[in-house]
Specification:
By secondary structure, the chain is mainly α. The protein contains 14 helices and no strands. The two termini are about 35 Å apart.
């Protein structure tokens, strides 16, 4: 007698992508609501200047961590899928150990550099000795993120998006509860920055715990000591190149998210940096789903491309179209109700961020559209070309940011973001279309 599971149809890649996306989105929605509450409370309690200082401290830590973070989760998926599908645990174990070792070295180096440079960078951001002290202490938080890239890659490889979804809400929940308590007792600046640090550490530890728990379940310890002895990146053809490409891609991605906030603090002051960060916090309603889409579609796009399946273009194109439609709804809302929304949530003194909010939402819509196209380009082996496209886009953005903010303040930052975000989706759409017309035909004939 056959079970229901045995006769049920295999879940299509598009349905699986949507299912995994909903798992992540559920955690991200909870996280977004919590972070929104944290941002609103901090902005109201601290005022523009002190809020801007907290923004600069947190952004500095995220930036320095990111500059030496190789985002190894993409490499684990890209090179781990064939070994995992073939049940080749030895190869998979060696790949993961290589990634873990690189994760440890680079993240620890990033933490040390952040701590040493804090006394130098702080004064250039308008910080006094007290704020520089907090900037230095907050940099120690980076140590807790050692191994995060490997852990996230393991959870994605093993299709444990439910755990990743839950992890996304851990840090924001800790921060929200802590900030609410601190606000109730009229706490000092030091207490608020400590709560943010505890929230960051808690989500990092949660991710590492569950990532390695799944590793022990799915792979387990090596039966032969040689399985994890003398690992070399060159064992995996193309791994070194892929890691470097995704590393630089991650740094390019930080230009609009982190670097420009620091530049705003340098060029315009802490208050303006706080306004820009506030607008970016609202626009993360779209930029965060873009990151989630890249996580969930890459696994299925890689597998579909390797198999020469027509599901590849269905997932890539349909996800891009849905992202564009979803984002435009938020842009329209921001155009008509942006000022009212900011006044209601964070106060009258922050409504100057309304115009840049609408522009950043449009830029995030373009990024949301490009998210599945980028994963598709990675899957077909064009990660290097995608990096060059995003690098060109980021350079154009920086040039326009410097030029336009001198004349139009934060509005210039929004215009620069839109122009920079428009280039990647157009180029990648053309690249994928040409590849689908040629490479899959060869694949199918070779079977």
């Amino acid at each position: 007698m056959s079970s229901a599971k045995a006769i049920s149809p295999v879940q299509s890649p598009m349905r699986r992508v949507l299912s995994n996306f909903l798992l992540l989105a559920r955690g991200r929605v909870v996280a977004a609501l919590m972070l929104f509450g944290v941002t609103a409370l901090l902005a109201r309690v601290l005022g523009p200047v002190e809020f801007g200082m907290i923004v600069l401290i947190e952004t500095y830590a995220l930036l320095t961590r990111g500059l030496l973070n190789f985002k190894l989760f993409d490499a684990i998926v890209r090179f781990g899928v064939p070994a995992y599908d073939a049940k080749d645990t030895r190869t998979l174990r060696r790949l993961i150990q290589i990634c873990w070792r690189l994760d440890l070295i680079t993240t620890a180096s990033g933490a040390i550099i952040a701590i040493l440079l804090a006394p130098v960078v702080g004064p250039h951001m308008g910080m006094d000795s007290n704020h520089v002290f907090f900037l230095t202490l907050y940099s120690f938080v980076i140590f807790a993120s050692i191994g995060n890239g490997t852990s996230r890659g393991l959870l994605r490889l093993f299709d444990k998006f439910d755990i990743i979804g839950k992890q996304m809400s851990v840090g924001p929940l800790v921060r929200f509860v802590g900030v609410c308590i601190a606000w109730w007792f009229d706490a000092s600046f030091a207490v608020f920055i400590s709560i943010l640090a505890i929230g960051s550490i808690s989500e990092d530890l949660y991710l590492n715990f569950y990532g390695w728990r799944e590793y022990r379940k799915k792979i387990g310890p090596a039966e032969n000591s040689q399985d994890t002895h003398n690992m070399r990146v060159d064992e995996f053809t193309g791994l070194r190149h892929f890691i470097w490409v995704t590393y630089w891609q991650a740094n390019v991605d930080m230009v609009p998210k982190r670097i420009t906030v620091m530049l705003a603090g340098y060029l315009l002051g802490a208050s303006e940096a706080g306004l820009l960060r506030l607008a970016r916090q609202f626009s993360s309603l779209l930029s965060q789903p873009a990151a989630l889409i890249r996580q969930v579609v890459f696994l299925d796009l890689t597998r579909s491309w390797n198999q020469g399946s027509s599901d590849f273009k269905v997932v890539a194109y349909r996800t891009a179209m849905l992202g564009a439609l979803f984002g435009l709804v938020f842009v329209v809302v921001a155009l008509f109700f942006g000022e009212a929304l900011l006044q209601l949530t964070v106060g009258q003194e922050y409504i100057a961020a309304a115009p840049v909010l609408a522009l950043l939402l449009f830029a995030s819509t373009l990024d949301l559209t490009a998210s599945s196209l980028r994963s598709a380009s990675y899957a077909i082996g064009h990660a290097g070309l995608v990096l060059r496209v995003y690098t060109l886009s980021a350079l154009l953005y920086l040039v326009m940011f410097f030029a336009l903010t001198s004349f139009f303040s934060l509005i210039g930052a929004g215009i620069a973001a839109c122009v920079g975000a428009a280039i990647p989706p157009m180029v990648m759409l053309n690249l994928i279309h040409k590849s689908i017309l040629t490479i899959p035909v060869v694949k199918k004939k070779s079977k």
